[in-house]
UniProtKB/TrEMBL annotation:
Residues 103-114, 121-142, 197-211 have a biased composition (Basic residues). SUPFAM superfamilies: LysM domain, Lysozyme-like. This is LysM domain-containing protein. PROSITE patterns: LYSM. Residues 48-92, 142-186 form the LysM domain. Signal peptide: none annotated. InterPro entries: LysM, LysM_dom_sf, Lysozyme-like_dom_sf, Transglycosylase_SLT_dom_1. Residues 99-142, 191-223 are annotated as: Disordered. CDD domains: LT-like, LysM. It holds the Pfam family LysM.
């Protein structure tokens, strides 16, 4: 489309500051004092200088050094995080080493009873009554009729199912074109009426998942949502775009969104559907958002593929339908169909990657900008990581 030919698909930004990598802060425990019980000491943090390497993003640096995106942004107020240049030194707040615990107070030895003392017979514990058999949770499939405005994602939210289970239960389903009135099988949880007695527990019980994301559920919600309006980072962009980005960021932070593993599966499936190299789409999605639908840039580039609203409308023409960039599947579709268009019209792979960031028209007119060359290098590094 001529109106969007020179518009970059996404103004690159590292995953936003509200994205938490999911690591718990280290707890530092001080040993017992002579006259008072052990008191818990709050964790201290120190700052470490980290030199940016090709392929780095603020999200990857935060994960590597057990820090958070918010802490890095706060420690580097003059750094433009949407354009990380190799060789730049970042200040990264990292947990300080735990203080050494004091030696515990020695216990007084317990005197053994003398032989003359008559030992009382030890009573055997009474046998506990057998536990009643508990009901075992099972899953059954429920047929759901698609209504106007439904998407695969909204159906999973409404019926408390995961995207992975719905996709598995409907192998021939075209998730991007749900026809009103069609039937979709939704696996839902249930309880059997006649459950078998519970088996004896093993020596080591299985570990419980640490979060819903690990259990195949929703992505963890951010604990802090950044607002860019009125900050130095927002000066280069229209106030309306910054305000829209702040609003969308807040909405996505409150939504139940697919976790990273589910996002990757959706990218691969959508890429194969449109004939795009999955490793290329995975690398672009990782560079743009870290495979997080909650990511929103300062200038309102949205979701996993960081698609600008104007580009999303153009991508809807390519897909043959209106795309909602707030919906995870539609957001991925917008990015993938744009990659298909660029693959068909660009001269080589590097030009495809650079045009996703800079715009095909601008690349042909001006060549790669310095930050575009860095973007291409980073995406190619991510492609090797994903098997490309």
């Amino acid at each position: 489309m001529p109106l969007t030919y020179d518009v970059p698909v996404a103004l690159h930004a590292a995953p936003p500051a509200h994205v938490q990598p999911g690591r718990a802060h280290a707890q530092f425990v001080k040993g017992a004092a002579e006259s008072s019980p052990a008191a818990e000491k709050k964790p201290t943090r120190k700052v470490k200088n980290v030199t940016i390497r090709p392929g780095d993003s603020v999200y990857a640096i935060a994960r590597t050094h057990s820090s958070s995106v918010a802490a890095i942004v706060k420690a580097n107020p003059n750094i433009e995080f949407r354009r990380l240049v190799p060789g730049t030194v970042l200040k990264v707040p990292v947990p300080a080493s735990a203080p050494k615990a004091t030696k515990p107070v020695k216990k007084q030895p317990v005197k053994k009873p003398s032989k003359a003392t008559s030992a009382k017979p030890v009573k055997k514990p009474a046998a506990k009554p057998a536990k009643k058999p508990t009901k075992k949770a099972v899953r059954h499939t429920k047929s759901v009729t698609v209504r106007p405005g439904d998407s695969l994602y909204t159906l999973t939210q409404r019926h408390h199912a995961s995207l992975a289970s719905v996709i598995k239960a409907n192998p021939g389903l075209d998730a991007r074109r749900l026809h009103v009135g069609s039937q979709v099988k939704i696996p839902v949880a249930g309880v059997t009426s006649a459950a078998k007695p519970a088996k004896k527990p093993t020596t080591k019980p299985a570990r419980k998942p640490t979060s819903k994301a690990h259990a195949g559920g929703y992505a963890p919600k951010p604990t802090h949502v950044v607002k860019y309006a009125g900050t130095s980072a927002a000066r280069r962009y229209p106030a309306s775009a910054v305000a829209s980005g702040d609003r969308h960021r807040q909405q996505l932070a409150q939504a139940n969104l697919p976790n990273q593993a589910q996002i990757r599966s959706m990218i691969v499936a959508t890429s194969k559907r449109y004939g795009v190299d999955p490793t290329l789409a995975l690398a672009i999605g990782w560079q743009e958002s870290g495979h997080r639908q909650s990511a929103v840039s300062v200038c309102d580039a949205l979701g996993t593929m960081q698609v600008m609203p104007a580009t999303g409308r153009w991508a809807g023409d390519l897909a043959g339908r209106k795309l909602n960039l707030m919906d995870p599947q539609d957001n991925i579709t917008a990015g993938v169909v744009t990659l298909r268009f660029l693959t068909q019209h660009a001269n080589n792979r590097d030009e495809v990657i650079g045009s996703y960031y800079q715009g095909l028209g601008a690349v042909r007119k001006h060549g790669f900008y310095p930050d575009t060359r860095q973007y291409v290098s980073s995406v190619k590094a991510h492609m090797k990581r994903f098997g490309g």
